[in-house]
């Protein structure tokens, strides 16, 4: 039975690595997956899903306003698909998440979404909030804070490494911009908690 999956975490947890491995498994078994990623991050080239460990794959991109159900249905009619993989799913619009739910319900295709749960301010991304509401299964991809605890938050830093508390929700960046922390150390970084002595 097809399901809508939401695999979420903070930055640098290996979400793209897990996505690429799962997609590879489908291809290795003679099945055709469709890979999609947000048309926002061009650090490794447009339409490319890349992992920090050096693996990558070409993908189609999605933008705000795209009808993902119509697009996937047309692709599936032309060449039967086995699964849909969405990287950077936090950038989906709520309407697009509903379209992906239709892909599961009406086309019988599994949709596996990978993305961030919260932004640097500790607020849900709209796409992530809708995925949390609609997903049939949710899986946390874990990473650790510098203290060894599970990292659940991310802090955005300026060029000098100072944590930022304000700014646009979306700013593309990697290790130079974002650091994954446990909630306690995130609160310390943004000035909401005094550091332990």
From TrEMBL:
Where does the UniProt annotation locate this protein? Cytoplasm
Asked if the record carries the keyword Transferase, the reply is: yes
Which Pfam families does the record cross-reference, listed alphabetically? Answer: TK
Q: Which InterPro entries match?
A: P-loop_NTPase (IPR027417), Thymidine_kinase (IPR001267), Thymidine_kinase_CS (IPR020633)
Q: Name one GO biological process term.
A: DNA biosynthetic process
Q: Where does Zn(2+) bind?
A: 145, 147, 182, 185
Please list the reactions this protein catalyses.
thymidine + ATP = dTMP + ADP + H(+)
**UniProt-listed Enzyme Commission number(s):** 2.7.1.21
Could you list this entry's UniProt keywords, alphabetically sorted. Answer: ATP-binding, Cytoplasm, DNA synthesis, Kinase, Metal-binding, Nucleotide-binding, Transferase, Zinc
> Per its UniProt record, what NCBIfam families does this chain match?
PRK04296.1-5
Q: What protein am I looking at?
A: Thymidine kinase
């Amino acid at each position: 039975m097809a399901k809508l999956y939401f695999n979420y975490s903070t930055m640098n947890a290996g979400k793209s690595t897990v996505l690429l491995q799962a997609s590879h498994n489908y291809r290795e078994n003679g099945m055709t997956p469709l890979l999609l990623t947000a048309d926002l991050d061009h650090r490794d080239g447009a339409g490319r899903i890349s992992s920090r460990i050096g693996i990558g794959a070409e993908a189609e991109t999605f933008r705000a306003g795209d009808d993902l159900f119509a697009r996937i249905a047309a692709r599936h009619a032309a060449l039967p698909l086995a699964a849909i993989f969405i990287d950077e799913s936090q950038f989906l619009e709520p309407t697009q998440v509903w379209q992906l739910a239709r892909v599961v319900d009406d086309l019988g295709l599994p949709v596996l979404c990978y993305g961030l749960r919260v932004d640097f301010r500790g607020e849900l991304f709209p796409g992530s909030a809708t995925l949390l509401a609609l997903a049939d299964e949710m899986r946390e991809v874990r990473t650790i804070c510098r203290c060894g605890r599970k990292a659940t938050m991310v802090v955005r830093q300026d060029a000098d490494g100072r944590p930022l508390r304000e700014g646009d929700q979306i700013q593309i960046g990697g290790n130079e911009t974002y650091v994954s922390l446990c909630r306690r150390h995130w609160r310390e970084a943004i000035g909401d908690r005094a550091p332990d002595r």
